[in-house]
């Protein structure tokens, strides 16, 4: 992009960075679960362009997950065939309730940042896609790994496809821009702790203008 086309795009990315800088890390999340209508987005994040776009990407994630387990699609057929094969092998029947409402989370995986003189560049960034139960288990919570046939198959069949789309597909390009902005903000908070911007702005929830 050049000229006039570059201006709105660069302004958006600057706002992502500034929002990531001023909103504390623990408040950088969104949650469109129908079971938690009172816990959708932290208040400060909800007033920003960053928060709005994260919610849009979470909606996209849920639409993608639903489409991948739709039985009329090729991947959906593979998913259901494997569910029933595994159920038959484990329980001797396919007449069992199967939980397809598994909640899928996108979480940070890896970031590599290169510093040189007064320049910083992100040379690698990747996100990981996990079932909620698995994520909570990694955080010391009560996981449910292995208890649900559909969960096991989702890990094998569906999650790799979602993770590929999240990290490379056009539908999640906005999410990758946000993730990179968060990485740069984290670098800034960590490496430039004594800067005046950090002292008066970082983690202060000063979201006016962003």
What does this protein structure show overall?
With 210 residues, the protein is an alpha+beta fold. The chain contains 8 helices and 2 strands; from the N terminus they run ααααββαααα. Strands 1-2 form a two-stranded antiparallel ribbon. Helix 1 crosses helix 7 and helix 4 packs antiparallel against helix 6.
Could you list some keywords that capture this structure?
two-stranded antiparallel ribbon; alpha+beta; 210 residues
Specify Rg, calculated over alpha carbons.
20 Å
Q: Report the uncertain regions.
A: none
Structural class: alpha+beta
- Percent of residues in helices comes to 40-55%
Specify the biggest β-sheet: 2 strands, antiparallel
Shape by Cα distribution: elongated
Mean pLDDT: 89
Euclidean distance between termini CA atoms:
22 Å
Care to count the β-strands? 2
- Spatially, the strands of the biggest sheet line up as 1-2
What percentage of amino acids are in beta strands?
5-15%
Our count of helices gives 8
Strand/helix succession: HHHHEEHHHH
């Amino acid at each position: 992009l050049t000229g006039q086309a570059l201006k709105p795009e660069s302004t958006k990315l600057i706002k992502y960075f500034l929002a990531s800088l001023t909103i504390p890390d623990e408040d950088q999340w969104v949650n469109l679960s129908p079971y938690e209508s009172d816990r959708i987005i932290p208040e400060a994040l909800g007033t920003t362009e960053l928060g709005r776009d994260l919610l849009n990407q979470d909606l996209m994630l849920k639409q993608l997950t639903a489409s991948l387990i739709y039985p009329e699609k090729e991947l959906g057929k593979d998913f259901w065939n494997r569910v029933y094969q595994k159920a038959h092998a484990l329980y001797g029947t396919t007449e069992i309730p199967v939980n397809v409402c598994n909640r899928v989370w996108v979480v940070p995986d890896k970031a590599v940042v290169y510093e040189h003189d007064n320049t910083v560049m992100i040379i690698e960034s990747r996100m990981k896609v996990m079932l909620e139960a698995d994520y909570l288990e990694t955080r010391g919570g009560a996981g449910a790994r292995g208890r649900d046939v559909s969960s096991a198959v989702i890990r094998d069949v569906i999650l790799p496809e979602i993770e590929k789309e999240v990290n490379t597909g056009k539908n999640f390009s906005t999410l990758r821009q946000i993730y990179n902005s968060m990485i740069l903000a984290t670098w800034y908070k960590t490496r430039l702790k004594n800067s005046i911007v950090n002292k008066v702005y970082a983690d202060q929830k000063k979201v006016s203008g962003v």
